Amino acid sequence: MGAHPKGDALIKDNRISQRTLGQWIADFPGCLGSKVKDTFHGQLPFLFKVLSVKTALSIQAHPNRELAARLHAQFPEHYPDNNHKPEMAIALTQFEGLCGFRPMDEILGFLKKVPEFRALVGNEAAEELQSADGDPGRTSLALKKCFTRMMNCEKKLFVDQLNMLVKRISEEGERKPCRTSTPSCAIMLFRFYRLCPLSSDETGLACSSVPEAAGKDTSGSNGELLLRLHSQYPGDIGCFSIYFLNRILLQPGEAMFLGANEPHAYLSGDCVECMACSDNTVRAGLTPKYIDVDTLCEMLNYSPAPVSAKLFPCVQDNADPCVYLYDPPVPDFTIMRVQIPVSARQYTVSALDSAGILLVIDGEAVATSAAALSDITLTPGSVLFISANESVSLQVTSPSGMTMFRACCLL
Known about the structure:
This protein is of the alpha+beta class.
């Protein structure tokens, strides 16, 4: 949902001559709002997505503006634009991912307990990392050396070590059943709009102080996850990334923000995702797509942090108690979760000095607006583009309230 050249959204109403959102914005740039239009040179600055992840997505990171421009100039076939791509994922169902480098004690613990992992990093680099613990500068350099050594090791070495690790974990599992709980992926979505809505009792939890995320298995070899990734991508070096990166488990309404150069991967579950308007991704594992190991290893932020630091809290809007704001530290986008209670039959989507995209997750309503050619029936999966300084009135027709997400740019 957006106006990127590689994925320009189609306009459904046949009475509008412009067939795509990008064409509409080009003809009527004032719809963006004056600040957005001037700041982003007449372009909608964000993309909005819904992801339903059954198989793990690649180990990846997104470049900052400077690196994005350089990569686009050198390799336009792989990096199709010159923009940065910070992004945020908000869980719709239980959502699992990898995000940022683990705390040092966890990485060192795995280097000690998982000999196959240590064999790829090498004793010298592992000992250097251990001796650097406590010095942020030395730790960052040593962590970069360890990760780069692993990602660049010979294929025969990492395939042999991965096979040994899979065999060992499988045999250990036969002796002692694995108790690690994992998100259920047995029932997957056929259409993205049949999602699990947030209930009223989940709303307060998701927007209060963020809890410690699950998935912190350092007692052994993180075996359940290793076997799962190996079954999806057999013989892939990315399987070993779980010993470097935090495993995060988001509950509905919880979010994680991924800034420039932050290593991450999505593993399972459903989420809404908003990002700067870019298609630049540097990949290095768990993917059949183009990989660029050297660029990824060079660009990453090698700052260890606990998984709790990767959770991004939302705040309730002071002006509208139905709105919860996810406002990241970048100007390109803000996400609002609109939670209309069961008791409400009418609601107004307020006007902003920014264009916005409204996505209905749950519930039904009839929408009216001064700018609309006619009333619009909203059901799960409906998507509205709302021009700047335009409000939308909703007559809620579903008995269970509504859940919607709105992407915009609050400068």
